[in-house]
Amino acid sequence: MYHTPIAPRVRKRSRPTEAGVPRRDEVKFEDVRLYLVERKMGRSRRSFLTQLARSKGFIVEDILSDAVTHVVSEESQASSLWKWLKESAPKNLPNMHVLDISWFTDSMKEGRPVAVETRHLIPDSLPGGSTPTAVAPVSQYACQRRTTTENNNKIITDAFEVLAESYEFNEIEGPCLAFRRAASVLKSLPWAVCSLEATLDLPCLGEHTKAVIDEILQCGRAFEVEKILSDERYQTLKLFTSVFGVGPKTAEKWYRRGLRSFSDVLADHSVQLNRMQQTGFLHYGDISRAVSKAEARALRNIIDEAVHAIAPDAVLALTGGFRRGKEFGHDVDFIVTTTELGKEESLLPRIIRRLTKQGILLYCDYQASTFDMSKLPSYRFEAMDHFAKCFLILRLEGSQVEEGLHIAEGDSRGWRAVRVDLVSPPMDRYAFALLGWSGSRQFERDLRRFARVERHMLLDNHALYDKTKKEFLAATTEKDIFAHLGLEYIEPWQRNA
Ligand code: DCT
Ligand code: MG
């Protein structure tokens, strides 16, 4: 169990606790009534924490009565705590949150009762003990799970991703999505799956996914996945789509033409490469190589300097995989805007001019804004948002990267090309754009699906629309959006679904 002492233990015996409702301290949270369990906590610490909570406007009850809503304990043995709670037998026990001290600590830090999350709960481990406060089952929605970059089931999720990609290449949408969802569920688990029985209560795992898991558990690999990996069509489409500007459709076209390698493509005079694909081939080595966190930091400095030289009131935020705490990414994503509404329109063209003058702009695809609030919410379910954006390739010098460039051994150029995306929403759309661009893709998909299916709302990178109330819901932070959706806030580093 997770314990966070919030203050040094008070050694002195303090005055006995006073009546439940604080006398001098103003009550701010009428609906929340705490009870601090003295067992293990000790009397003096309990008294100290009681006074702390009351000073922050919380009601702390002295007796475990039916009025209590939140029971807080420092007991590390859940079974012994639950035995005592049941013996104390308040009638309302099934409706009380039984929480460890982390909930209390978080609430004191925030100065308000924070939403109860699964990690705060002390589950009833006694036989037959399944109160509403027991550990919540894994949700079918990625936006109700916490998924860090630590993946305990990588062998299985890698296999699922190969299968999903193969279905994608064959344009078979259902199983593709099913394998992506299943992979996402397994990524969220704080434990490694080591038997099929362990997956019984997990959502999004169908017969096919379970058969693959079973085979991997028994043989260390799945025949179906091995077959795909050695399939010529899969290998070729994978190779072609690794080029910047080449999607599955183009890759398929080249494959059908009998092309199998880059030299085949480049030697074929009937193949017309667009500017993006030409650049993709030109910088293939660099762009297909992962970008490191240190390189992302160096790029942030470059963009930050450019943006602030142009607009002192500019706002710059790192988004995408690096915001989620990933060590490596395929590109670096930023949101840039200005606090003054409308001023953001000239921002990207000016940044582009500045980067050009600095001689570091190797490629630029600028797309002006087509955003029009009056057209919302009709833009739904489109892949891309309507904000101004640019897809860039920048030249990054080794001297600008603190830990040095992430380049191949023997590469002595002293620089590398890196993909950078900048998106520029108006400031009143900032929270939606930040949430939408932070990813992961699966997290975004499930946020939208959750909004639609569970809340009858439409969410995209521009806005949140409540179909029942027929109104847009305003948000200045991501937390506002989660709150509108009735979701616990998930930190960016927990969105690696
Ligand atoms: N995004 C999305 N749907 C897409 C493409 C992107 O929701 N079809 C969002 C989620 C992630 C964000 O935009 C940035 O996209 P990428 O850079 O492709 O993803 P990433 O998570 O940053 O991954 P990487 O580390 O590989 O760049
Ligand atoms: Mg990215």
From TrEMBL:
Region (Disordered): 1-22
Compartments where found: Nucleus
Primary localisation category: nucleus
CDD domains assigned: NT_POLXc
SUPFAM superfamilies: BRCT domain (SSF52113), DNA polymerase beta, N-terminal domain-like (SSF47802), Nucleotidyltransferase (SSF81301), PsbU/PolX domain-like (SSF81585)
Enzyme type, top EC level: transferase
Classification via InterPro entries: BRCT_dom, BRCT_dom_sf, DNA-dir_DNA_pol_X, DNA_pol_B_palm_palm, DNA_pol_lambd_fingers_domain, DNA_pol_lamdba_lyase_dom_sf, DNA_Pol_thumb_sf, DNA_pol_X
Biological process terms in GO annotation: DNA modification; double-strand break repair via nonhomologous end joining
Molecular functions (GO terms): DNA binding; DNA nucleotidylexotransferase activity; DNA-directed DNA polymerase activity; metal ion binding
SMART domains: BRCT, POLXc
Function: Template-independent DNA polymerase which catalyzes the random addition of deoxynucleoside 5'-triphosphate to the 3'-end of a DNA initiator. One of the in vivo functions of this enzyme is the addition of nucleotides at the junction (N region) of rearranged Ig heavy chain and T-cell receptor gene segments during the maturation of B- and T-cells.
Family: Belongs to the DNA polymerase type-X family.
Entries under PANTHER family matching the protein: DNA NUCLEOTIDYLEXOTRANSFERASE (PTHR11276:SF21), DNA POLYMERASE TYPE-X FAMILY MEMBER (PTHR11276)
Name by which UniProt lists this protein: DNA nucleotidylexotransferase
